[in-house]
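Customer escalation, tier 2.

The customer says the design service returned an amino acid string that "doesn't look like it belongs to this structure." They asked us to rerun it and document both sides in this ticket. The original structure tokens are below, unchanged.
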């Protein structure tokens, strides 16, 4: 007989032990079996078969459009017919979890609220001033007592032509005070000047003399409050100018860590001083005997011009331990110029950072914290309100969601208003980040 496979299943006669070889025919039996084996091999196909009717070819070239039905999750599927419903089936329940993000504990996934700790980095620093929740802030150097501060100053009202000086300076009720006297004379200072009845100490490194003229700088720590008398004796004097200063928050031992002095008979002139640490106040004094000075503008500057020329003042606190130079020129020329410079050490050590409101308007150094220090160096967004010296958490990167009134999907800059953001650049173009679909959220990227 001929076989029917693969059209239909064959029915072969199985011989018994008592059948003769010719009934059923032994040869026919082998012929049918061989035909059946060939038919099976043809149906299955060889590896990588190109016969389109073979099972090997069909398995390797399954048509996905002909696959129907859904495999349940328990059998490795999703039990769903679309991509979105399949994803939803695999995720934790979304009911009541709107706006949350997916997180894992290392074993299982769950939904979590969006907070600073899981979408970016933050830092905690003391505030230098009052900070509101959501303020754009910057960082700088901070001293808990506010750093070295100016209290009062005074200069002579008229040319001193005699052998003595006597004047008063009112000292404020502050801590860690220091009083400074600068004397510019064409004679010499005899003995030791006094302030409030106590001897002052000469700042030798900032004092100098040349051509018969003397620039002499003195100080005393912890002077008494109120009106105090300054006195000095002069020898060989016919012309003299002096200035008096008081500062506070100054270290009461090793108060003058850095000094420098110099002389010149040409113009322009310059004098520099190198602070030993961040937070030291930079003070300069210059004296001459003729001409009119055009000098680097100093803070708390005093200029005396009867007979002799004297300019004194400070440049605020140092923000790095690098040399700072002031320059000046004299229209008279050819005069002997005496110059001195020194630093005042702060009573408290400068910390590594503090927080204050940022603005795109200012990019100038000032003696912080009462004013500003590079306020356009945007740091991040404050996550809580804080008064001066209290800690404030600052979101540095990632998503912050404590803002209000923002425009969705818009880039924001630091504005000229302290602590605020704007959709347009301020004086300095400082990018903060981009908003999301929500008017309370900003992705802090500093680029867009």
């Amino acid at each position: 007989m001929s076989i029917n496979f693969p059209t239909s299943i064959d029915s072969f006669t199985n011989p018994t032990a008592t059948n003769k070889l010719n009934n059923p025919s032994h040869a026919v039996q082998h012929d049918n079996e061989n035909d059946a084996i060939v038919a099976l091999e043809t149906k299955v196909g060889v590896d990588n078969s190109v016969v389109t009717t073979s099972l090997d070819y069909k398995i390797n070239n399954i048509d996905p459009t002909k696959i129907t039905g859904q495999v349940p999750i328990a059998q490795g599927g999703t039990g769903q017919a679309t991509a979105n419903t399949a994803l939803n089936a695999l995720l934790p329940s979304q009911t009541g979890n709107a706006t949350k993000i997916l997180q894992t504990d290392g074993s299982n996934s769950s939904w979590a609220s969006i907070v600073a700790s899981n979408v970016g980095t933050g830092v905690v620093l003391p505030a230098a001033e009052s900070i509101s929740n959501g303020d754009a802030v910057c960082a700088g150097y901070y001293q808990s007592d506010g750093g070295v501060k100016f209290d009062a100053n005074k200069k002579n009202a008229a040319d001193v032509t005699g052998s003595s000086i006597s004047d008063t300076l009112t000292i404020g009720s502050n801590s860690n005070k220091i009083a400074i006297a600068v004397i510019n004379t064409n004679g010499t200072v005899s003995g030791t000047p006094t302030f409030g009845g106590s001897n002052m100490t000469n700042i030798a490194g900032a004092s100098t003399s040349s051509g018969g003229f003397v620039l002499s700088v003195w100080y005393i720590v912890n002077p008494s409050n109120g009106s105090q008398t300054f006195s000095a004796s002069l020898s060989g004097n016919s012309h003299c100018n002096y200035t008096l200063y008081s500062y506070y928050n100054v270290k009461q031992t090793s108060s003058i860590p850095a000094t420098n002095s110099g002389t010149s008979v040409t113009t322009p002139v310059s004098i520099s001083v190198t602070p030993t640490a961040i937070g030291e106040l930079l003070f300069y004094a210059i004296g001459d005997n003729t001409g009119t000075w055009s000098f680097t503008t100093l803070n708390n500057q005093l200029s005396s011009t009867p007979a002799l020329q004297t300019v004194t003042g400070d440049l605020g606190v140092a923000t790095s331990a690098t040399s700072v130079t002031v320059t000046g020129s004299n229209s008279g020329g050819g005069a002997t110029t005496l110059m001195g410079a020194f630093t005042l050490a702060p009573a408290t050590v400068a910390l590594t950072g503090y927080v204050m409101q940022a603005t795109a308007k200012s990019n100038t150094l000032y003696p912080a914290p009462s004013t500003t220090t590079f306020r356009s160096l945007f740091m991040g967004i404050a996550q809580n309100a804080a008064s001066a010296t209290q800690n404030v958490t600052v979101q540095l990167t990632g998503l912050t969601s404590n803002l209000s009134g923002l425009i969705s999907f818009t880039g924001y800059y630091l504005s000229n208003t302290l602590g605020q953001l704007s959709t347009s650049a301020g004086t300095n173009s400082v990018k903060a980040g981009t908003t999301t679909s929500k008017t309370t959220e900003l992705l802090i990227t500093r680029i867009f």
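Tier 2 assessment: The sequence is consistent with the input. The chain has three domains: 69-113, 118-141+351-444, 149-344. Residues 149-344 form one domain. Sent an explanation to the customer and offered a walkthrough call.
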